Amino acid sequence: MKYTVNEKGYYGKFGGAYIPEMLYPNVEELRTRYLDIIYEEGFQKEFHKLLRDYVGRPTPLYLAKRLSEKYGATIYLKREDLCHTGAHKVNNTIGQILLAKRLGKQKIIAETGAGQHGVATATVCALMGMECIVYMGKIDMERQRPNVERMRILGTTVVPALSGSMTLKDATNEAMRHWINNPTDTHYIIGSVVGPHPYPDMVARFQSVISEEMKKQLQEEIGNPYPDYVFACVGGGSNAAGAFYHFLDDEHVTLVASEAAGKGVDSGESAATTALGKPGVLHGSKTILMQTEDGQVVEPYSISAGLDYPGIGPIHAHLFDVGRVKFVSATDDEAMNAGLELSRMEGIIPAIESAHALAALSQFTFEKDDVVVVNLSGRGDKDLETYIRWGKY
Amino acid sequence: MKNRIKDLFASGKGNILSVYYTAGFPTFDSTAAIATALEKGGADIIEIGIPYSDPVADGPTIQESNKIALENGVTLPKILEQVKLIRKTVKIPIILMGYVNPVMQYGIERFAKDAAAAGVDGVILPDLPMDAFLAEYKTTFEAANLSNTFLISPTTSEDRIRKIDNETDGFIYAVSASSITGAKGEFADTQLQYFDRLKTMKLKNPFLIGFGISDHATFAKASSYGAGAIVGSAFINVLKKSANVASDSEAFAVSLKNNSKS
Ligand SMILES: Cc1ncc(COP(=O)(O)O)c(C=O)c1O
């Protein structure tokens, strides 16, 4: 595989493990053991059984007829929104909790933005009877209230991150600090393809079940495992990494990543990382991030808490750098309209994150026989308040 | 080539006091005044922090000083100007400590050249991993005669400590506990055992103990194991409350080194 991580933990120029020495033993333990653990037969069996019986996989590949008509192509939706807990995030947390158990850890920490990863982590911790603390930016706690209460109902302690911009990047900082202070009994379940090596690779592998299923389902559906396009939104990039993974070497499949442009790429209130960022170090890896000339991390903005992040995973920085993935962006307006459109045309209210992937469709001109898969990463239940405030329906 | 850090340790001096503070905190112009006062009070090394928006290895005290310093308009080029000013009078080693991203954006070669020209003797970048240092920084830093200091912690394996010792030319920063920065009370027995273990390893480089040094007692205790100790958060707390940073900085250094003041 041409685009996967090398043995030093890099994707081209990006990746690595830029961590303080205090975290080195933990990350090193993971690095040396993750592949052996996750490809062990017993692990695979337990992982896939839980994905089937607990998460509800495989998720359907649904032919969206009215959407297809509108955009003049055959459009399928990969229904990650139907996963237990409402988003793709749970694919990763199931994998990581099984790993944490095999590493002998008793406690789990996580960061969350939209709260989907927090809920998915709280869920697997309840399932496995493990203690769980989730860090969440104070601002995100306010705009994703239902998810905060879901985590609490599941028995998780939600700790507000009060530093910096009080959003996802700061929750990640707080989780890392907690891990530095508790290095032996705690596993940190990172929620996207970010963080020091081996996290990006590990999370991508757990999420790769998405494209693995797409291929099988397309084979059954159209007699060919390859679509012409795959669309996904990118916050840190885990649903995109999962949706692209098994197509990366198939260069005839156009992969499209949609970032959050917020109020417009040049408005000063945006989270379109590849458009606005430069290479640097964020949360333990060398990647592309939004920053000042002086190397200070810029506070991003998006209506979607899950995309409100100033970086992208190093795999995406590389895929952008070499041009394998086409990066586009959608504004708040465009995403909200696309979310409402899907609601009205297909009876599916998408997460606002996923609506950014849908919004990218209108930026392309398709051939009539093009097969397009949009990764519908999550459902809109958590976003009801945002939809209501948005109005216009 | 002359390097003030190497000279200091070569002199065999013990009880070395290294004081960390954030550039541009509490005010933009306090950087130079603090340096002068610390030297006067008997500090042996000053570590000037490059403020960063996302200091993951730092506790609330240093997080706050970073935030205020950034609000005060401090940038790396401005810090280098301040160091130049400090070097007009201050003779003790100056280390720049900070996260790697601002250095990367400044440009590694440009940074090494400008820092050395300003009078910087060494660098501590806690989130720069050894492999990246060896591949991309080492030659450049050496050419500029900048010494690089790695951190070790109680969970660092003996093998890795030896590896770090091999790649170090100056001193090793022994983090006293598995924790982020922050002033604490006394050392626990497990920490003392770890200091003992370091002492008996007979490393080629001297080590300074940092994190959790807050007063003369913890400074003296730490110094009895290594070449000396590093104090940060406790000093930031003093600066935060200070009405006269120069006299308070001097008094702080004096009080850490000597038991006369409490
Ligand atoms: C539904 C949904 N999609 C996408 C994301 C963005 O994360 P990632 O880019 O890692 O898929 C989130 C994050 O919270 C989410 O909840």
Automatic annotation (TrEMBL), chain A:
<dbReference type="InterPro" id="IPR006654">
    <property type="entry name" value="Trp_synth_beta"/>
</dbReference>
<dbReference type="InterPro" id="IPR006653">
    <property type="entry name" value="Trp_synth_b_CS"/>
</dbReference>
<feature type="domain" description="Tryptophan synthase beta chain-like PALP">
    <location>
        <begin position="56"/>
        <end position="378"/>
    </location>
</feature>
<feature type="modified residue" description="N6-(pyridoxal phosphate)lysine">
    <location>
        <position position="89"/>
    </location>
</feature>
<dbReference type="GO" id="GO:0005737">
    <property type="term" value="C:cytoplasm"/>
</dbReference>
<keyword id="KW-0456">Lyase</keyword>
<dbReference type="Pfam" id="PF00291">
    <property type="entry name" value="PALP"/>
</dbReference>
<dbReference type="GO" id="GO:0004834">
    <property type="term" value="F:tryptophan synthase activity"/>
</dbReference>
<protein>
    <recommendedName>
        <fullName>Tryptophan synthase beta chain</fullName>
        <ecNumber>4.2.1.20</ecNumber>
    </recommendedName>
</protein>
<dbReference type="InterPro" id="IPR036052">
    <property type="entry name" value="TrpB-like_PALP_sf"/>
</dbReference>
<dbReference type="InterPro" id="IPR001926">
    <property type="entry name" value="TrpB-like_PALP"/>
</dbReference>
<keyword id="KW-0057">Aromatic amino acid biosynthesis</keyword>
<comment type="function">
    <text>The beta subunit is responsible for the synthesis of L-tryptophan from indole and L-serine.</text>
</comment>
<comment type="subunit">
    <text>Tetramer of two alpha and two beta chains.</text>
</comment>
<comment type="similarity">
    <text>Belongs to the TrpB family.</text>
</comment>
<dbReference type="InterPro" id="IPR023026">
    <property type="entry name" value="Trp_synth_beta/beta-like"/>
</dbReference>
<keyword id="KW-0822">Tryptophan biosynthesis</keyword>
<comment type="pathway">
    <text>Amino-acid biosynthesis; L-tryptophan biosynthesis; L-tryptophan from chorismate: step 5/5.</text>
</comment>
<keyword id="KW-0028">Amino-acid biosynthesis</keyword>
<keyword id="KW-0663">Pyridoxal phosphate</keyword>
From TrEMBL, chain B:
<keyword id="KW-0057">Aromatic amino acid biosynthesis</keyword>
<dbReference type="GO" id="GO:0004834">
    <property type="term" value="F:tryptophan synthase activity"/>
</dbReference>
<comment type="pathway">
    <text>Amino-acid biosynthesis; L-tryptophan biosynthesis; L-tryptophan from chorismate: step 5/5.</text>
</comment>
<dbReference type="InterPro" id="IPR013785">
    <property type="entry name" value="Aldolase_TIM"/>
</dbReference>
<feature type="active site" description="Proton acceptor">
    <location>
        <position position="58"/>
    </location>
</feature>
<dbReference type="GO" id="GO:0005829">
    <property type="term" value="C:cytosol"/>
</dbReference>
<keyword id="KW-0028">Amino-acid biosynthesis</keyword>
<comment type="similarity">
    <text>Belongs to the TrpA family.</text>
</comment>
<protein>
    <recommendedName>
        <fullName>Tryptophan synthase alpha chain</fullName>
        <ecNumber>4.2.1.20</ecNumber>
    </recommendedName>
</protein>
<dbReference type="InterPro" id="IPR002028">
    <property type="entry name" value="Trp_synthase_suA"/>
</dbReference>
<keyword id="KW-0456">Lyase</keyword>
<comment type="function">
    <text>The alpha subunit is responsible for the aldol cleavage of indoleglycerol phosphate to indole and glyceraldehyde 3-phosphate.</text>
</comment>
<dbReference type="InterPro" id="IPR018204">
    <property type="entry name" value="Trp_synthase_alpha_AS"/>
</dbReference>
<dbReference type="InterPro" id="IPR011060">
    <property type="entry name" value="RibuloseP-bd_barrel"/>
</dbReference>
<keyword id="KW-0822">Tryptophan biosynthesis</keyword>
<comment type="subunit">
    <text>Tetramer of two alpha and two beta chains.</text>
</comment>
<feature type="active site" description="Proton acceptor">
    <location>
        <position position="47"/>
    </location>
</feature>
<dbReference type="Pfam" id="PF00290">
    <property type="entry name" value="Trp_syntA"/>
</dbReference>
